[in-house]
């Protein structure tokens, strides 16, 4: 959409407010609203000023002035505001007009430019499967003398004997029993359908939705793949609409990887491929899972750099509560066709040459999508450049249920880092592939590691409630 068309959209839809949005290092959106009467062509040239020092990880107070530059290709009408509002995603610049090298969306743009300059292909396509929970009640606190959390859902297995419902209606979802049941077990068909309706109005192409494996209201909605930056934009819209639709229904949605103990967590499996124009470059009939040599090298790059990648694709302490064996979590750094216990799965069911792709199953939705997708692309491109063969490197293929292997056999398989600190250590030791072509800068990596280490420390130094169960009577 051109600037002229954006201004036309404002007029035709009687828009009262234009909401300018950007993301921080963690991928959370921030916004400033201007009256529609104050928005014109110059707004798209000069941008909208904001205080960068108030955004964690952005700027110091002595250099706080920053500018949002609206992208006319990234707009949608807000379905939740009482006053008609048009939302516009923005890039970040310094006051002198320079691109800000800590802007996640700017990094995604540079990653796409690097792909083309490398002569590998014209576009990389991404499709995330971002799972979430829909709860009815969420409470938590973390104080000096108390620490707790509580979540509840009308679907939860622990509520089979709850009396507060005014007559328990049963049909609860069992632990690990939530994969695609029909009503009345699945109580969330309508809320997911409403989410999909609003997502389509916002411009996303919805492919399907369903209940997921875990008890207590786990869900998944799949939307159509697109180019790297556009898919990251779509994921921001997706999370915004999921969160706010749940709120309209008197519920709350979370993309937290492991909000409950003892059942599956929520991942963000990321499908990816490279095209040259209309030609898919990951397909070769007769190869393993019909993969081309380029695709195998791309996988080699993903798995070789995985410990460092995970600092960007699983960037929370809670991520590593999900990344444990036994709950479909892809902790094993191998590849395989159709095997969900491997970190990299090659989909083989109903796949056409243009649909041939690889799926990195380790990521979760605490990732900033602009950073995570860019980092995955850079790792894959490094694998292509260096011809990293995953078979020769010992990454498979392994076409068996890895969780059923003996301990000795499992011991031969490289695994993901066991904590956020370990992942950050790996990133500090292996970041040069990210800085190729200036996509990521060393300053960005250093700042990101410092930012995330402070999160890890804030968790590590706090007393955990389970420690009372283990140690209070010592």
UniProtKB/TrEMBL annotation:
Principal localisation: cytoplasm
Keyword annotations: ATP-binding, Cytoplasm, Ligase, Nucleotide-binding
Domain GS catalytic: residue ranges: 104-474
The enzyme's E.C. designation: 6.3.1.2
Domain GS beta-grasp, chain residue ranges per copy: 13-97
Matching Pfam families: Gln-synt_C, Gln-synt_N
Protein name from the UniProt record: Glutamine synthetase
Organism: Paenibacillus ottowii
This protein's encoding gene: glnA
């Amino acid at each position: 959409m051109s600037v002229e068309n954006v201004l036309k959209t404002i007029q035709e839809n009687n828009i009262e407010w234009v909401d300018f949005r950007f993301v921080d290092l963690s991928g959370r959106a921030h916004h400033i609203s201007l009256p529609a009467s104050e928005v014109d062509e110059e707004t798209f040239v000069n941008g909208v000023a904001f205080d960068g020092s108030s955004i964690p990880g952005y700027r110091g107070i002595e250099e706080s002035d920053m500018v949002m530059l609206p992208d006319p290709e990234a707009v949608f009408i807000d379905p939740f505001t009482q006053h008609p509002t048009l939302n516009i995603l923005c890039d970040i610049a310094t006051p002198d007009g320079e691109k800000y090298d800590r802007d996640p969306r700017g990094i995604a743009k540079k990653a796409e430019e690097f792909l083309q300059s490398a002569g590998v292909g014209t576009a990389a396509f991404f499709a995330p499967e971002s799972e979430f929970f829909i709860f009815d009640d969420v409470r938590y606190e973390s104080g000096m003398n108390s620490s707790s959390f509580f979540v509840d859902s009308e679907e939860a297995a622990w509520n089979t004997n709850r009396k507060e419902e005014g007559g328990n209606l049963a049909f609860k979802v069992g632990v690990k029993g939530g994969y695609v049941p029909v009503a009345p077990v699945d109580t969330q068909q309508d809320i997911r359908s409403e989410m999909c309706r609003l997502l389509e109005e916002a411009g996303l192409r919805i492919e399907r939705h369903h209940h997921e494996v875990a008890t207590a209201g786990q869900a998944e909605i799949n939307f159509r793949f697109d180019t790297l930056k556009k898919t990251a934009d779509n994921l921001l819209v997706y999370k915004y609409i999921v969160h706010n639709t749940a709120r309209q229904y008197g519920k709350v949605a979370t993309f937290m990887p492991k909000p409950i103990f003892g059942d599956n967590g929520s991942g963000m499996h990321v499908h990816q491929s490279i095209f040259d124009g209309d030609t898919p470059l990951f397909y070769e009939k007769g190869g393993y899972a019909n993969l081309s040599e380029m695709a195998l090298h791309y996988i080699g790059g993903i798995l070789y750099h995985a410990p460092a990648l995970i600092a960007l694709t699983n960037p929370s302490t809670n991520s590593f509560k999900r990344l444990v064996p036994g709950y479909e979590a892809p902790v094993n750094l191998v590849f395989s066709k159709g095997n969900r216990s491997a970190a990299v799965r090659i989909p083989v069911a109903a796949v056409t040459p243009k649909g041939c792709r690889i799926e990195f199953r380790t990521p979760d939705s605490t990732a900033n999508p602009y950073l995570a997708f860019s980092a995955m692309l850079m790792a894959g491109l490094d694998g292509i450049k260096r011809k990293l063969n995953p078979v020769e490197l010992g990454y498979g293929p392994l076409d068996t249920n890895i969780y059923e292997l003996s301990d000795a056999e499992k011991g031969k398989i490289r695994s993901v880092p066991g904590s956020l600190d370990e992942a950050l250590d790996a990133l500090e030791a292996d970041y040069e592939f990210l800085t190729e072509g200036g996509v990521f800068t060393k300053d960005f990596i250093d700042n990101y590691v410092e930012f995330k280490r402070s999160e890890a420390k804030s968790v590590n130094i706090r007393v955990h409630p389970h420690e009372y169960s283990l140690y209070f009577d010592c």
